[in-house]
Amino acid sequence: MNALCSTCGVARPPPPSVARSKTSVTATTTTTAAATTEEVEKLQKGIAELYDESSGVWEEIWGDHMHHGFYDPNYNNKKDKDDALSLLSDHRSAQIRMIEETLRFAAVPEDPMKTPKNVVDVGCGIGGSSRYIARKYEAQCQGITLSPVQAQRANALAAAQGLADKVCVSFQVADALNQPFPDAQFDLVWSMESGEHMPHKAKFVNELARVAAPGGTIIIVTWCHRDLSPSEESLRPEEKALLQKICDAYYLPAWCSAADYVKILESLSLQDIKTADWSKNVAPFWPAVIRSALTWKGITSLLRSGWKTIRGALVMPLMIRGYKMGLIKFAIITCRKPEHVVTTTTSECAAENI
């Protein structure tokens, strides 16, 4: 299950059906074997336990946005080395900027008459993005996570901020590969740094497309490995070894490239597909997280948390190394569901290898 995807070939099926059981994409890869149901359940259990254990530590230091910040490429990362928390507000502002830059890249309308009114946050953490988007657009937002602790905390924060009743913001424990929502419900489908946890990338994207309303926007911001060159069949052994260590600590299955995501989106006849590599824009984030972990507050919080959180902290330098060597890419992929979706009868989803 933790083998690394080297390349993905995706056959083009008919456009996605409006029925869950009839949505299909066929995909194969040269190196990654199918994850069994038992392996997926084990992975998802580990993900839930990791975030049950670590979310409180993150919130205590970094607040309710559990994702990278967005920085100008010339950001001076050395200026806050002497006092790791003195400019923490700058990094939290960068996390808000990440949301805004993502919405801007996806061309989400600012016109009050056209803004999204029904949003799903897939892999919602403790609901930071959902609450921000709900306030920005006065939209109804629903979030899903594998972590009961995250869902409970997200609902508590929404209630405390008056959002649970005002614009109907709610969170629940659910599987992103089998979302508990009807077809064509959301005009904005948001996934901020959750795709890397998905054991079947094509099933994940299929579900994003299924719950998107006709004309709705789909946003995927995720960790990817670099694109392969035409002469390459796989990543280099040393690259695979580095990613495997990260997989083991953060409960990640097979990695794929942004190009692999594009192939899946194209296979579903989704429109206006755009991608960008924001690796340089997030480069200051992991050093800042490491410095915050090395403060007295960070160390004591880690010691109170548990082994999964501590192991994740120990692997953070490998993320920096992966970015610096050009192996890890911070990718944004956006698209739009066609206004008119053709209903077709196709085989069951066969995306077992991505």
From TrEMBL:
PROSITE patterns: SAM_GTMT (PS51581). CDD domains: AdoMet_MTases (cd02440). Residues 119-128 are annotated as: SAM motif I. Gene3D superfamilies: Vaccinia Virus protein VP39. Residues 1-21 are annotated as: Disordered. SUPFAM superfamilies: S-adenosyl-L-methionine-dependent methyltransferases. One of its GO terms (biological process) is methylation. Keywords: Alkaloid metabolism, Methyltransferase, S-adenosyl-L-methionine, Transferase. GO terms for molecular function: S-adenosylmethionine-dependent methyltransferase activity. Residues 184-192 are annotated as: SAM motif II. It comes from the Eukaryota. Residues 211-220 are annotated as: SAM motif III. InterPro entries: Methyltransf_11 (IPR013216), PiNMT-like (IPR025774), SAM-dependent_MTases_sf (IPR029063). Pathway: Alkaloid biosynthesis. Residues 120-220 form the Methyltransferase type domain. Homodimer. Belongs to the class I-like SAM-binding methyltransferase superfamily. gTMT family. This is Methyltransferase type 11 domain-containing protein. It comes from Rhododendron griersonianum.
